[in-house]
Amino acid sequence: MMLLACLFIIPFILALISPFAFRKLGSHWPKLVSVLVLVLVGIILVLLQQAATGDPQVLHIQWIPRLGLDITLRADSFGLFIALIITAMGAAVFSYSSGYLGDDPRTGSIMAWLLLFMMSMLGIVLADNIILLFVSWELTSISSYILIGTNHQDPAARAGAKTALLVTAVGGLALLGAVVLIGIATGHWNLSELTALHEHPWSTAIFVLICLAAFTKSAQWPFCFWLPGAMAAPTPISAYLHSATMVKAGVFLLARMHPILSEHAAWTPTLVFVSAATMLVVIFSVPKMTDLKALLAYSTLGALALLVCMLGIGTEYALNAMMVFMLAHACYKGPLFLVAGSIDHAVHSRDINSLGGLAKKMPYTTMTAVMAGISMIGIPPALGFVAKEMLFESSLSYAPWLLGLISLLVVAFVVVASCVVLIPAFGKNTQLQQEAHEAPWSMLLPMLLISSLGLLLGIFLAPVQEYLLAPAVASLAVEPQSLALWHGFTLYFALSVGVILLGLIAYIQRQRLSKWCPSLPSGHNIHEAIWNGLIGFARLLTRTVQNGSLTSYLGTIIVVSCVLILYSWINMDTPMVPAIVHRLSFAELSAGVLIMCSSLATVFAKKRLPAIAGLGSVGMGMTLFFIVSHAPDLALTQFLVEILSIVLLVVAFRHLPDFRSQPLKIQTGRLLISVLTGTTMMALTLVALSADYSQRVSDWYGLNSLKEGKGYNVVNVILVDFRALDTLGEITVLGIAALGVGVLMGSLKQIKKV
Predict the structure, then answer these.
(1) pTM greater than the 0.85 cutoff
(2) Taking the CB of residue 392, how many other CB atoms lie within 10 A of it?
(3) Contacts with 13 (C-beta within 8 Å, 6 or more apart), sequence order
């Protein structure tokens, strides 16, 4: 259990000391963090060995035992598979940051937030308790917002951070609803204890909420606009958050829910349709992009769409393809983002129209780009080649049209890889060639290692499958499929070659394609349209509801309360046969007659002062009722409130508007509200009189005062425990009355002085 706890303790401690450590160590601090994060990689490899034997390590901490809620972490093979990607990419990004950020004073805080983000992502993938998963999910949204907006002086960075936060916050609320529904529906709060929910009445609501959370986090259509806008962040942040980690959280959530919701009728159609729509957005957008990071961002959208599509197809082979492609994508997309950052760092430009001639000045960066590009395009022996053939085969098993769409998406990948590799390296631009310089080894080493890993994993596919991929797939209750780098000259190999050739043609003709492709609205424009629409609706709602009329507010509250009470009464089998408890005494009858006469006098009074007097008489009648009912505390409260109300009304009645001159429809509306209120109170009174009061409540108080309230004085226990809110209300009323009296006394003193 300590190994599992260290995965969270180490990054948390490093995050706390990061700002102070950077002041002492400077640019050496990110290098040290990178080495310490490699320790986490080693811990995960040890845990993977334990999980592969079917005995995953579990960390269980009691949280709220009475509600059955505990903090539970479970290191199964699938969660550790994603955790390995998170920590390995984290070590590479931290090393890269030491050269990219240098002595930037923000480096300490950036490292702290990156470490907190890493801890949150590990919480998502290793959490067994679904509430802990939700908390970690929200922490990634908050930390990513801070990281995207690092360059807060840049309006584009602020807009990208705000958009990302708003979109992912919507998904977070959806996930919260899904978590609550799952917990109530199943009675379990741990993922390992959940069973299939497709037959539960709430399954559709849970499915919709889960999809909303996953699609917003993984930037799937129609929420795909926020990811390109997040590219305003510094390259290490973009490479870590938006290539290999955070954007995969939505895919991870869908994979976790696959055993629970995959049998729902809408699972496959929804996931396949949404992923296909996202692919179309990528296919139409890539030819128009000229920024290296924007190209990589759109290709990331396409890769995420492929992962969602494989989950939607849901066959064993498709889920194996998803796992292989997820690993391959991390091995090539992270280095390509870092390559784009190195080019920007060297020549201060990412525009493909102004790049070229950098191969001689940046040979190692070019080597990294070539290796990562080979894996992205899918050329043997890269792991990307194995993943691509599996994607083709899985899509053909579902529908031929999907195979064609995925083929076009892979063409877009070829175009992106070609733009990142060929244009900067071999394009003609002598001016930038003179300015260019190779990145330091702290930036080069992680890029070279990860990109070469993408090639080596394809060569050593058997051990990778045995020790990493097969256990991860098996933890999703799916049978692992046999993998091979070479299957001979098959249909899928021919399709792969054809797609690469088509992609190279598209790369050559990309300027023509950019004119033919329809112009899609940019993410910034979509966000602004949604934002302006929400603000406009809020203003309209505010003008309607918050119109400045106190009578309107009071009438709305009364009407809504009465409607809810009457609705509940109509839908409940509540008897309305009031029993006559006892005969009315002369005092009770007198109080009732006083209340009725005073009410009529108030209604028909033509001047304010008689109306106020009549209203006060109604209150005094209620006070008399309390007295004869042996409730002196209520009588005293009612008496004080009535006196204060009358005094305040007399003081302020000169400033009240003239209601006699108001239109007939307003007076009619108030009459209807009065009738509705009277009807509601009559119904409540009849229901109360129809209740069975044969059992005395005082007996229950006597029996439970010591047991539940831990007190011997029954009256005190009633006041401060059993009827605590009622007592608080009375104290509040008396306090307000005392304040009112104090204000009036102060006013009288000032008048006397004058």
Answers:
(1) no
(2) 23
(3) none
